[in-house]
Amino acid sequence: MKTIRTIISEYLEHLKLFKSNAKYYLLSAFIMNLSLTGFSLLFNLFLKELDLSETVIGYRLSIFSLGSLIIAIPATLSAKRRDFSSIFSTSIIILAITSLSQVFFTQIGSLMTAVLISGMFSTYYSVAVAPFIMRNSSKKERTYLFSLNYANVLAAGIFGNIIAGYLPGFFLKLKFPIVESYKFSLMLMAVSSLLALIFVHKTKEDRVPDKKAKLNDLFKIKDPMLLLKVTLPSFIVGMGAGLIIPFMNLYFKNKIHLTVDKIGIIFSIAQIFMFLGILFGPPLAKKFGKIRTVVITQFLSIPFMLILAFMEQYILVAIAFCMRAALMNMAQPLTTNFAMEMVPEKEHEITNSTLSVAWTFSWTISTAIGGNLIEKGGFTLPLVIAALLYVISSILYFIFFFRTEKINEELEWSGN
Q1: pLDDT means per 10 residues in the chain (416 residues)?
Q2: What is the dihedral of CA 389, 124, 279, 366, to 10 degrees?
Q3: Domain boundaries 18-201+222-414, corresponding CATH code
Q4: pTM
Q5: Which of 57, 94, 225, 339 could form a disulfide linkage to 121, CB 3.0–4.6 angstroms apart?
Protein backbone atom coordinates (compact mmCIF):
# COMPACT_ATOMS: atom_id res chain seq x y z
CA MET A 1 0.00 0.00 0.00
CA LYS A 2 1.27 3.42 -0.94
CA THR A 3 2.18 5.76 1.87
CA ILE A 4 0.71 9.24 2.19
CA ARG A 5 4.16 10.60 1.38
CA THR A 6 4.24 8.67 -1.91
CA ILE A 7 0.73 9.79 -2.80
CA ILE A 8 1.56 13.43 -2.11
CA SER A 9 4.68 13.02 -4.27
CA GLU A 10 2.49 11.70 -7.10
CA TYR A 11 0.16 14.68 -6.75
CA LEU A 12 3.09 17.08 -6.90
CA GLU A 13 4.31 15.39 -10.09
CA HIS A 14 0.87 15.72 -11.67
CA LEU A 15 0.56 19.28 -10.37
CA LYS A 16 3.42 20.22 -12.71
CA LEU A 17 1.14 19.22 -15.60
CA PHE A 18 -1.69 21.54 -14.51
CA LYS A 19 -2.36 24.50 -16.78
CA SER A 20 -2.28 28.04 -15.36
CA ASN A 21 -6.05 28.27 -15.65
CA ALA A 22 -6.46 25.20 -13.47
CA LYS A 23 -4.12 26.60 -10.81
CA TYR A 24 -5.89 29.98 -10.72
CA TYR A 25 -9.23 28.23 -10.48
CA LEU A 26 -8.04 26.14 -7.52
CA LEU A 27 -6.86 29.29 -5.70
CA SER A 28 -10.15 31.12 -6.29
CA ALA A 29 -12.17 28.06 -5.26
CA PHE A 30 -10.13 27.75 -2.06
CA ILE A 31 -10.94 31.31 -0.99
CA MET A 32 -14.61 31.10 -1.90
CA ASN A 33 -15.14 27.77 -0.17
CA LEU A 34 -13.24 28.81 2.94
CA SER A 35 -15.67 31.70 3.35
CA LEU A 36 -18.88 29.90 2.41
CA THR A 37 -18.09 26.76 4.44
CA GLY A 38 -17.57 28.90 7.53
CA PHE A 39 -20.81 30.75 6.76
CA SER A 40 -22.67 27.45 6.44
CA LEU A 41 -21.32 26.14 9.76
CA LEU A 42 -22.65 29.16 11.65
CA PHE A 43 -25.89 29.90 9.85
CA ASN A 44 -28.06 27.04 11.17
CA LEU A 45 -26.84 27.86 14.70
CA PHE A 46 -27.67 31.53 14.08
CA LEU A 47 -31.21 30.58 13.04
CA LYS A 48 -31.61 28.48 16.19
CA GLU A 49 -30.61 31.52 18.27
CA LEU A 50 -33.50 33.31 16.52
CA ASP A 51 -35.79 30.47 17.73
CA LEU A 52 -36.46 29.00 14.30
CA SER A 53 -37.27 25.28 14.29
CA GLU A 54 -35.45 22.42 12.56
CA THR A 55 -38.43 22.16 10.20
CA VAL A 56 -37.92 25.77 9.05
CA ILE A 57 -34.18 25.12 8.67
CA GLY A 58 -35.02 22.05 6.59
CA TYR A 59 -37.34 24.12 4.39
CA ARG A 60 -34.55 26.67 3.93
CA LEU A 61 -32.24 23.93 2.69
CA SER A 62 -34.98 22.65 0.38
CA ILE A 63 -35.55 26.13 -1.04
CA PHE A 64 -31.80 26.35 -1.73
CA SER A 65 -32.06 23.10 -3.68
CA LEU A 66 -35.18 24.36 -5.46
CA GLY A 67 -33.18 27.37 -6.66
CA SER A 68 -30.60 24.96 -8.05
CA LEU A 69 -33.31 23.10 -9.96
CA ILE A 70 -34.79 26.28 -11.42
CA ILE A 71 -31.44 27.48 -12.81
CA ALA A 72 -30.00 24.12 -13.90
CA ILE A 73 -31.03 24.17 -17.58
CA PRO A 74 -30.53 27.94 -18.14
CA ALA A 75 -27.14 27.62 -16.42
CA THR A 76 -26.19 24.75 -18.70
CA LEU A 77 -27.06 26.80 -21.78
CA SER A 78 -25.19 29.79 -20.37
CA ALA A 79 -22.12 27.60 -19.75
CA LYS A 80 -21.98 27.03 -23.50
CA ARG A 81 -22.63 30.68 -24.42
CA ARG A 82 -20.42 32.50 -21.89
CA ASP A 83 -16.78 32.24 -20.92
CA PHE A 84 -16.00 30.43 -17.68
CA SER A 85 -14.43 33.39 -15.84
CA SER A 86 -17.55 35.55 -16.24
CA ILE A 87 -19.71 32.71 -14.91
CA PHE A 88 -17.45 32.26 -11.87
CA SER A 89 -17.23 36.03 -11.20
CA THR A 90 -20.97 36.63 -11.43
CA SER A 91 -21.71 33.67 -9.17
CA ILE A 92 -19.22 34.70 -6.47
CA ILE A 93 -20.58 38.26 -6.31
CA ILE A 94 -24.23 37.17 -6.14
CA LEU A 95 -23.47 34.50 -3.52
CA ALA A 96 -21.78 37.10 -1.31
CA ILE A 97 -24.77 39.44 -1.65
CA THR A 98 -27.36 36.74 -0.93
CA SER A 99 -25.35 35.50 2.06
CA LEU A 100 -25.38 38.99 3.56
CA SER A 101 -29.09 39.28 2.78
CA GLN A 102 -29.81 36.13 4.81
CA VAL A 103 -28.05 37.68 7.80
CA PHE A 104 -29.94 40.98 7.71
CA PHE A 105 -33.35 39.91 6.43
CA THR A 106 -34.44 36.98 8.59
CA GLN A 107 -38.20 37.25 8.06
CA ILE A 108 -39.32 34.03 6.39
CA GLY A 109 -40.25 35.58 3.03
CA SER A 110 -37.06 37.63 2.65
CA LEU A 111 -34.89 34.81 3.96
CA MET A 112 -36.31 32.24 1.57
CA THR A 113 -36.00 34.62 -1.39
CA ALA A 114 -32.31 35.16 -0.67
CA VAL A 115 -31.85 31.41 -0.20
CA LEU A 116 -33.58 30.70 -3.52
CA ILE A 117 -31.26 33.09 -5.39
CA SER A 118 -28.26 31.68 -3.54
CA GLY A 119 -29.19 28.17 -4.67
CA MET A 120 -29.52 29.38 -8.25
CA PHE A 121 -26.09 30.96 -8.42
CA SER A 122 -24.39 28.18 -6.50
CA THR A 123 -25.52 25.85 -9.28
CA TYR A 124 -24.63 28.42 -11.96
CA TYR A 125 -21.07 28.26 -10.59
CA SER A 126 -20.91 24.48 -10.17
CA VAL A 127 -22.33 23.61 -13.60
CA ALA A 128 -19.28 25.24 -15.20
CA VAL A 129 -16.67 23.55 -12.98
CA ALA A 130 -16.45 20.05 -14.49
CA PRO A 131 -16.46 21.29 -18.13
CA PHE A 132 -13.80 23.83 -17.13
CA ILE A 133 -11.65 21.06 -15.64
CA MET A 134 -12.16 18.82 -18.68
CA ARG A 135 -11.21 21.71 -20.95
CA ASN A 136 -8.12 22.63 -18.94
CA SER A 137 -6.60 19.18 -18.40
CA SER A 138 -5.40 16.13 -20.31
CA LYS A 139 -6.29 12.53 -19.54
CA LYS A 140 -2.93 12.02 -17.83
CA GLU A 141 -3.56 14.44 -14.95
CA ARG A 142 -7.37 14.75 -15.12
CA THR A 143 -8.26 12.26 -12.36
CA TYR A 144 -5.78 14.01 -10.08
CA LEU A 145 -7.20 17.43 -10.95
CA PHE A 146 -10.78 16.31 -10.25
CA SER A 147 -9.73 14.83 -6.92
CA LEU A 148 -7.49 17.77 -6.04
CA ASN A 149 -10.42 20.09 -6.79
CA TYR A 150 -12.47 18.31 -4.13
CA ALA A 151 -9.49 18.14 -1.79
CA ASN A 152 -8.97 21.85 -2.31
CA VAL A 153 -12.58 22.55 -1.29
CA LEU A 154 -12.11 20.40 1.81
CA ALA A 155 -8.85 22.08 2.75
CA ALA A 156 -10.64 25.41 2.48
CA GLY A 157 -13.40 24.03 4.67
CA ILE A 158 -10.92 22.99 7.35
CA PHE A 159 -9.75 26.57 7.77
CA GLY A 160 -13.23 27.96 7.25
CA ASN A 161 -14.72 25.81 10.01
CA ILE A 162 -11.90 26.60 12.46
CA ILE A 163 -12.15 30.35 11.83
CA ALA A 164 -15.95 30.36 11.91
CA GLY A 165 -16.04 28.20 15.04
CA TYR A 166 -14.01 30.75 17.00
CA LEU A 167 -15.43 33.99 15.60
CA PRO A 168 -18.63 34.10 17.73
CA GLY A 169 -16.55 33.53 20.87
CA PHE A 170 -14.24 36.36 19.84
CA PHE A 171 -17.16 38.79 19.54
CA LEU A 172 -18.69 37.52 22.78
CA LYS A 173 -15.45 38.43 24.57
CA LEU A 174 -15.90 41.93 23.17
CA LYS A 175 -19.26 42.01 25.04
CA PHE A 176 -21.48 41.67 21.97
CA PRO A 177 -24.80 39.81 22.49
CA ILE A 178 -24.91 36.24 21.15
CA VAL A 179 -27.11 37.06 18.12
CA GLU A 180 -24.92 40.05 17.17
CA SER A 181 -21.81 37.89 17.57
CA TYR A 182 -23.21 35.45 15.04
CA LYS A 183 -24.19 38.31 12.72
CA PHE A 184 -20.72 39.88 12.66
CA SER A 185 -19.12 36.46 12.17
CA LEU A 186 -21.41 35.65 9.25
CA MET A 187 -20.80 39.06 7.67
CA LEU A 188 -17.03 38.54 7.77
CA MET A 189 -17.29 35.10 6.18
CA ALA A 190 -19.59 36.35 3.40
CA VAL A 191 -17.52 39.43 2.47
CA SER A 192 -14.22 37.53 2.45
CA SER A 193 -15.49 35.31 -0.38
CA LEU A 194 -15.10 38.27 -2.76
CA LEU A 195 -11.30 37.89 -2.54
CA ALA A 196 -11.71 34.89 -4.85
CA LEU A 197 -12.33 37.32 -7.72
CA ILE A 198 -8.61 38.23 -7.74
CA PHE A 199 -7.67 34.81 -9.14
CA VAL A 200 -10.78 34.34 -11.29
CA HIS A 201 -9.77 37.43 -13.25
CA LYS A 202 -6.33 35.92 -13.92
CA THR A 203 -7.76 32.98 -15.87
CA LYS A 204 -7.60 33.17 -19.65
CA GLU A 205 -10.35 31.65 -21.75
CA ASP A 206 -8.95 28.97 -24.08
CA ARG A 207 -12.16 28.15 -25.89
CA VAL A 208 -14.64 30.08 -28.04
CA PRO A 209 -18.05 30.18 -26.31
CA ASP A 210 -20.89 29.10 -28.59
CA LYS A 211 -23.04 32.24 -28.45
CA LYS A 212 -25.54 30.67 -30.87
CA ALA A 213 -26.14 27.58 -28.74
CA LYS A 214 -29.85 26.80 -28.47
CA LEU A 215 -31.85 25.10 -25.76
CA ASN A 216 -32.84 22.13 -27.92
CA ASP A 217 -29.15 21.48 -28.68
CA LEU A 218 -28.64 20.50 -25.05
CA PHE A 219 -31.03 17.59 -25.33
CA LYS A 220 -29.43 15.94 -28.35
CA ILE A 221 -28.01 13.13 -26.24
CA LYS A 222 -26.32 10.17 -27.90
CA ASP A 223 -27.26 7.62 -25.22
CA PRO A 224 -30.08 8.75 -22.86
CA MET A 225 -29.97 5.42 -21.00
CA LEU A 226 -26.30 5.96 -20.16
CA LEU A 227 -27.14 9.40 -18.78
CA LEU A 228 -29.86 7.84 -16.62
CA LYS A 229 -27.45 5.22 -15.33
CA VAL A 230 -24.76 7.73 -14.28
CA THR A 231 -27.44 9.92 -12.67
CA LEU A 232 -29.65 7.53 -10.70
CA PRO A 233 -27.05 6.36 -8.12
CA SER A 234 -26.10 10.01 -7.50
CA PHE A 235 -29.75 10.88 -6.94
CA ILE A 236 -30.12 8.11 -4.36
CA VAL A 237 -26.95 9.14 -2.51
CA GLY A 238 -28.28 12.71 -2.49
CA MET A 239 -31.55 11.50 -0.97
CA GLY A 240 -29.62 9.85 1.85
CA ALA A 241 -27.22 12.73 2.39
CA GLY A 242 -29.98 15.35 2.41
CA LEU A 243 -31.78 13.59 5.25
CA ILE A 244 -28.95 14.13 7.71
CA ILE A 245 -25.75 15.84 6.50
CA PRO A 246 -27.09 19.45 6.58
CA PHE A 247 -28.18 18.86 10.18
CA MET A 248 -24.94 17.40 11.56
CA ASN A 249 -24.01 20.66 13.29
CA LEU A 250 -27.36 20.44 15.12
CA TYR A 251 -26.70 16.74 15.78
CA PHE A 252 -23.53 17.57 17.69
CA LYS A 253 -25.12 20.50 19.51
CA ASN A 254 -28.47 18.95 20.47
CA LYS A 255 -27.71 15.23 20.76
CA ILE A 256 -24.04 15.22 21.83
CA HIS A 257 -24.30 18.62 23.63
CA LEU A 258 -21.13 20.22 22.28
CA THR A 259 -20.22 23.91 22.13
CA VAL A 260 -19.84 25.78 18.82
CA ASP A 261 -16.04 25.87 18.95
CA LYS A 262 -15.88 22.08 19.50
CA ILE A 263 -18.30 21.53 16.63
CA GLY A 264 -16.03 23.64 14.43
CA ILE A 265 -13.02 21.54 15.44
CA ILE A 266 -14.84 18.26 14.70
CA PHE A 267 -15.98 19.52 11.30
CA SER A 268 -12.41 20.61 10.55
CA ILE A 269 -11.00 17.22 11.57
CA ALA A 270 -13.65 15.53 9.42
CA GLN A 271 -12.51 17.60 6.47
CA ILE A 272 -8.90 16.57 7.13
CA PHE A 273 -10.10 12.97 6.91
CA MET A 274 -12.02 13.78 3.73
CA PHE A 275 -8.92 15.47 2.33
CA LEU A 276 -6.80 12.38 3.01
CA GLY A 277 -9.53 10.13 1.63
CA ILE A 278 -9.65 12.09 -1.60
CA LEU A 279 -5.85 11.92 -1.88
CA PHE A 280 -6.14 8.13 -1.79
CA GLY A 281 -8.92 8.13 -4.42
CA PRO A 282 -6.85 8.31 -7.66
CA PRO A 283 -4.26 5.67 -6.58
CA LEU A 284 -7.08 3.33 -5.52
CA ALA A 285 -8.95 4.02 -8.77
CA LYS A 286 -5.78 3.27 -10.72
CA LYS A 287 -5.43 -0.06 -8.88
CA PHE A 288 -9.06 -1.21 -8.62
CA GLY A 289 -10.94 0.96 -11.13
CA LYS A 290 -13.13 3.99 -10.42
CA ILE A 291 -16.42 2.13 -9.99
CA ARG A 292 -15.04 -0.64 -7.78
CA THR A 293 -13.42 2.00 -5.58
CA VAL A 294 -16.74 3.88 -5.33
CA VAL A 295 -18.68 0.73 -4.42
CA ILE A 296 -16.14 -0.42 -1.81
CA THR A 297 -15.80 2.94 -0.07
CA GLN A 298 -19.55 3.58 0.05
CA PHE A 299 -20.18 0.14 1.57
CA LEU A 300 -17.43 0.68 4.14
CA SER A 301 -19.12 3.92 5.28
CA ILE A 302 -22.31 2.14 6.39
CA PRO A 303 -21.12 0.88 9.84
CA PHE A 304 -20.05 4.42 10.74
CA MET A 305 -23.50 5.74 9.79
CA LEU A 306 -25.04 3.22 12.19
CA ILE A 307 -22.68 4.28 14.99
CA LEU A 308 -23.90 7.85 14.53
CA ALA A 309 -27.48 6.60 14.62
CA PHE A 310 -27.29 4.52 17.81
CA MET A 311 -24.34 5.76 19.89
CA GLU A 312 -23.89 8.96 21.89
CA GLN A 313 -20.32 8.70 23.21
CA TYR A 314 -18.53 11.89 22.16
CA ILE A 315 -15.25 10.35 20.94
CA LEU A 316 -16.91 7.39 19.21
CA VAL A 317 -19.41 9.46 17.21
CA ALA A 318 -16.73 12.02 16.33
CA ILE A 319 -14.53 9.24 14.88
CA ALA A 320 -17.52 7.72 13.06
CA PHE A 321 -18.42 11.13 11.61
CA CYS A 322 -14.87 11.61 10.32
CA MET A 323 -14.58 8.11 8.85
CA ARG A 324 -17.96 8.30 7.10
CA ALA A 325 -16.98 11.65 5.63
CA ALA A 326 -13.65 10.30 4.34
CA LEU A 327 -15.12 7.20 2.73
CA MET A 328 -18.16 8.80 1.09
CA ASN A 329 -16.32 11.84 -0.22
CA MET A 330 -13.49 9.74 -1.61
CA ALA A 331 -16.03 8.47 -4.15
CA GLN A 332 -17.49 11.79 -5.29
CA PRO A 333 -14.74 13.11 -7.61
CA LEU A 334 -14.32 9.63 -9.07
CA THR A 335 -18.00 9.39 -10.02
CA THR A 336 -17.94 12.84 -11.63
CA ASN A 337 -14.73 12.05 -13.52
CA PHE A 338 -16.16 8.69 -14.64
CA ALA A 339 -19.41 10.27 -15.86
CA MET A 340 -17.63 12.98 -17.84
CA GLU A 341 -15.34 10.44 -19.52
CA MET A 342 -18.27 8.23 -20.47
CA VAL A 343 -19.97 10.91 -22.61
CA PRO A 344 -18.84 12.93 -25.68
CA GLU A 345 -17.28 16.36 -25.07
CA LYS A 346 -20.32 18.20 -26.44
CA GLU A 347 -22.43 16.56 -23.71
CA HIS A 348 -20.19 17.57 -20.80
CA GLU A 349 -22.34 20.57 -19.79
CA ILE A 350 -25.67 18.71 -19.90
CA THR A 351 -24.17 15.67 -18.14
CA ASN A 352 -22.71 17.79 -15.36
CA SER A 353 -25.98 19.72 -15.11
CA THR A 354 -27.99 16.49 -14.93
CA LEU A 355 -25.77 15.20 -12.13
CA SER A 356 -26.22 18.50 -10.32
CA VAL A 357 -30.00 18.39 -10.82
CA ALA A 358 -30.15 14.81 -9.57
CA TRP A 359 -28.25 15.77 -6.44
CA THR A 360 -30.10 18.99 -5.72
CA PHE A 361 -33.56 17.60 -6.53
CA SER A 362 -32.94 14.78 -4.08
CA TRP A 363 -31.87 17.33 -1.46
CA THR A 364 -34.98 19.44 -2.17
CA ILE A 365 -37.06 16.46 -1.15
CA SER A 366 -34.95 14.94 1.59
CA THR A 367 -33.86 18.02 3.56
CA ALA A 368 -37.49 18.97 4.18
CA ILE A 369 -38.24 15.38 5.23
CA GLY A 370 -35.07 15.19 7.33
CA GLY A 371 -35.80 18.39 9.23
CA ASN A 372 -39.31 17.18 10.00
CA LEU A 373 -38.13 13.72 11.10
CA ILE A 374 -35.45 15.21 13.35
CA GLU A 375 -37.85 17.66 14.98
CA LYS A 376 -40.38 14.91 15.71
CA GLY A 377 -38.17 11.95 16.56
CA GLY A 378 -34.49 12.85 16.65
CA PHE A 379 -31.58 11.82 14.47
CA THR A 380 -31.67 7.99 14.55
CA LEU A 381 -34.30 7.28 11.87
CA PRO A 382 -32.86 9.69 9.25
CA LEU A 383 -29.39 8.17 9.75
CA VAL A 384 -30.68 4.61 9.30
CA ILE A 385 -32.63 5.54 6.16
CA ALA A 386 -29.57 7.35 4.77
CA ALA A 387 -27.41 4.25 5.34
CA LEU A 388 -29.94 2.10 3.47
CA LEU A 389 -29.98 4.53 0.52
CA TYR A 390 -26.16 4.47 0.36
CA VAL A 391 -26.33 0.67 0.08
CA ILE A 392 -28.84 0.88 -2.79
CA SER A 393 -26.68 3.44 -4.62
CA SER A 394 -23.59 1.22 -4.31
CA ILE A 395 -25.46 -1.79 -5.68
CA LEU A 396 -26.67 0.24 -8.68
CA TYR A 397 -23.15 1.48 -9.48
CA PHE A 398 -21.97 -2.13 -9.46
CA ILE A 399 -24.85 -3.39 -11.65
CA PHE A 400 -24.63 -0.54 -14.17
CA PHE A 401 -20.90 -0.09 -14.63
CA PHE A 402 -18.79 -2.95 -13.27
CA ARG A 403 -18.78 -4.82 -16.60
CA THR A 404 -18.33 -1.60 -18.64
CA GLU A 405 -15.29 -0.58 -16.62
CA LYS A 406 -13.81 -4.07 -16.88
CA ILE A 407 -14.18 -4.05 -20.69
CA ASN A 408 -12.56 -0.60 -20.90
CA GLU A 409 -9.63 -1.80 -18.79
CA GLU A 410 -9.15 -4.85 -21.03
CA LEU A 411 -9.12 -2.59 -24.12
CA GLU A 412 -6.48 -0.34 -22.52
CA TRP A 413 -4.34 -3.32 -21.55
CA SER A 414 -4.55 -4.71 -25.10
CA GLY A 415 -3.37 -1.38 -26.47
CA ASN A 416 -6.54 -0.75 -28.49
Answers
A1: 67 78 92 91 84 76 79 79 87 95 86 90 87 82 82 83 86 88 92 94 73 63 84 91 88 87 84 81 80 90 94 91 89 82 78 80 82 89 94 91 63 42
A2: -20
A3: 1.20.1250.20
A4: 0.71
A5: 94
